[in-house]
């Protein structure tokens, strides 16, 4: 993808961030006391539960963003290759018409 290197780097960065936040989600989940939250209420361990939820939401967000950027770059690359192919075919057709008209002019003159 020579035209979309920045997008290519961005989706790789978003996948990396998603992986990082997944690890942070797992770490926050192991440190939080969800059994105690279910038993005694959320007020005792509110911040540990919130960090787990925030990290999980960020994981999903960056994962979806990375997938969307990759698909946008692939669609744009497909469109560009299709346009390039159409321009090449049109150019070949026009060159074929020019050579045929030149040939007719040569035959008419001789």
Description:
Residues 73-100 form a coiled coil. The chain crosses the membrane at residues 50-69. With 110 residues, the chain is mostly helical. 89% of the residues lie in helices and 0% in strands. The chain has three helices and no strands. The chain has helices at residues 5-31, 34-40, 46-109. Helix 1 (5-31) packs antiparallel against helix 3. It is rod-shaped, with a radius of gyration of 29 Å. The mean pLDDT is 80.
Instruction: Give the rounded overall mean pLDDT.
Output: 80
Helix/strand-derived category reads mainly alpha
Shape: rod-shaped
Query: Could you state the order of secondary-structure elements as H and E?
Result: HHH
Radius of gyration: 29 Å
Question: What's the β-strand tally?
Answer: 0
Biggest sheet layout: none
* Terminus-to-terminus distance: 51 Å
Helical content stands at: over 70%
- Counted by DSSP, the helix tally is 3
Low-confidence stretches: none
Approximate strand percentage: under 5%
């Amino acid at each position: 993808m020579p035209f979309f290197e920045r997008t290519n780097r961005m989706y790789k960065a978003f996948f990396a961030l998603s992986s990082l936040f997944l690890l942070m989600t797992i770490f926050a989940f192991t440190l939080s006391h969800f059994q105690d939250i279910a038993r005694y209420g959320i007020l005792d361990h509110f911040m540990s539960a919130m960090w787990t939820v925030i990290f999980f939401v960020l994981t999903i967000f960056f994962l979806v963003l990375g997938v969307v950027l990759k698909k946008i770059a692939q669609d744009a690359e497909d469109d560009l290759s299709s346009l390039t192919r159409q321009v090449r075919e049109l150019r070949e057709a026009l060159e074929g018409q020019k050579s045929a008209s030149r040939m007719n002019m040569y035959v008419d003159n001789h």
